[in-house]
Every structure is written in C-alpha cells, then in structure tokens.
Amino acid sequence: MQMNLLSGLEKFGIKSDGKLDITDDGTRKKEDGTQPVKKSITDLEEKDMVLQKSVQCPICDHKFKVLQIKSAKVKRVGADQDTRPHYHNIDVLKYEVIVCPNCGYAALNKYFAHLSATQMRWIKEAVCKNFKPVSDDVPEIYTPDEAVDRYKLALVSAMAKHARLSEKSLICLRIAWIRRDQIKEMSESKAEEVGRKQQYEEEYEGFYRQAYEGYTKAYSTESGLNPIAVEFLLANMAIHFKEYGTAAKLISSLLGNPNTSPRVKDKCLDLKDIVLAAQNK
C-alpha cells in the first residue's frame, strides 16, 4: 500500500487521498540590559542565525511573522553527493518556506508574493477553504518536522496554483533531504523511534522519487534550468534508484560538456566508477 506522502496536514484541515504525482499538471484525472557579547560564526547557535520577518499574505492580506536566515551569520561546511548543502549549526533549508497561519497559503520564499489572480482563485478553492487557522506565534527555531509540514503545505499550494514542475520538484527534493538527515540521526536501538524512522524512510524515498521524476520531465519541457546542475543532480538520483543506464548517459553528457567545471567533472568520474562497479556485479 502506497504511503500518503502528505500525511500530517490533517491538523491544518488539509485532506489528501494519498495519491501524489507532481508531474500531473491538472490536464488529466495541493532582554537583562547588558551589552551582548558578539559571537563568532562558529560559536553561534541556530537561534542566533535567524530573525523574525514581517510578511503580508497576498491571498488574505493577513500580516504575520516568519523566521528567516541571517545570511551573513551562516557558514557553509559542505554538501552531500547530490548537492544537499550543509551549514555550521543550522539547516538553512528549514527556513525557505513561508506559510500564512490564517489561510494556509504557503510557498518557497522567492515565490510567495508572486501570484496571478487566477492562481489566487485556485488556492482559495483548494487550500484556504478547508484550512484551519493556527497561532501567529513564532517559535525560536523551526524543528525538522515543522519544516517538513511547511514544505508539504507549500506543495499543496504549488499543485493548486499549477506551479512549474521544477518548483514542485524542488519542494519534494527538500523534504526528502530533511527526512534523510533525520534518518541518519535516529537511533537503531530506541523502540520509540522505530515506527517514526520507518515513516521518515518512506517519505524520503517517496519524495525523492517525486523529485527525480519531476526534474526529469521538467528538464525536457522547461526553459531557464541550469543544465549542468540538473544533470548532475539527476545522475546522483538515478544511481540511488539503481537506474544505471540513465545515470551513465547523464554522466557522459556532463563529461562531454565544455561548460562543465573541472570540479564537477571530477565528481562525475567518481559517479562513473560507482555505475561501472554496479553494472559489473
């Protein structure tokens, strides 16, 4: 039985039948007064790297606050093979969605204010009509689970407004990345975490698959995407899903592209070794 990837949104009044396909575009049948001591970036805690930003919802005009990253305070420390970025003492990805607590409209930060009149109507009908308003209170930080809920709400709105497939794919990819990090940090021995870990693993695989299929289609149908970035991402994802033939073609394309940087080509050679080893088993 397929897992409902949008589970957890019921508390917001958002219902889903569990059938998620982001590639469906709708043409076929969601203070003590003392002076604070300035900390170096490496000493900062997550709460020191975020601030509250005032926002007004373009759908219902409700004014509220969200947590945003203080970009000057964060330090990138690396990335996973599939380009998932990592920062010192904070996961920046948790702060890249805005959710209106009054009507439920949600979107990636860069897309939140940009809606056509038709998209507003679609979102009001598919999201706002059923949404259960939540408190405007802003937490000190967003937890990974809170962040995932926010991304899921963004995905519901993205589907409702018929967003570009690349936008929906990016949302799915970020949910998968957050879940993957949660899985890595979970204990294998704590009984209370076993069920939760299984849920996270299913969501990771499900959203990663949605992102993979979404980006694959978007790459051939949308303009404005960075071909090198997309091909490298898809090559890594294809390896994850054991689609080695697809991975090999993408790697070959990257290695033959004069615009591919030496750094990326080196990484592609590593991927090529992985593919060859898998194919020769």
Please tell me about this protein's structure.
The protein is mainly alpha-helical and 281 residues long. It has two domains: 190 residues, no CATH class; 56 residues. It is 45% helix and 10% strand. It is built from seven helices and six strands, in the order ββββββααααααα. Strands 1-2 form a two-stranded antiparallel sheet. Strands 3-4 form a two-stranded antiparallel ribbon. Strands 5-6 form a two-stranded antiparallel sheet. The radius of gyration is 20 Å and the shape is globular. 33% of the residues are buried. InterPro entries: DUF2225.
- Mean pLDDT reading: 92
The gyration radius over C-alpha positions equals 20 Å
- Measured as a percent range, the helix fraction is 40-55%
Element-by-element helix/strand order? EEEEEEHHHHHHH
Number of strands: 6
Global structural class: mainly alpha
Tell me the fraction of residues in β-strands, as a range. Answer: 5-15%
Number of domains: 2
Distance between the termini: 31 Å
General shape:
globular
Strand order of the largest sheet: 1-2
Query: What low-confidence regions span 5 or more consecutive residues with pLDDT below 50?
Result: none
Largest sheet: 2 strands, antiparallel
Please describe the structure with a list of short key phrases separated by commas or semicolons.
45% helix, globular, two-stranded antiparallel ribbon, 281 residues, 6 strands, 10% strand
Short description:
The two termini are 31 Å apart.
Present the secondary structure layout.
Blueprint: E1 50-56, E2 63-69, E3 76-79, E4 85-87, E5 97-99, E6 106-108, H1 117-128, H2 144-160, H3 165-185, H4 191-221, H5 227-240, H6 244-256, H7 262-279
Helix pairs in contact: 2-3, 3-4, 4-5, 5-6, 5-7, 6-7
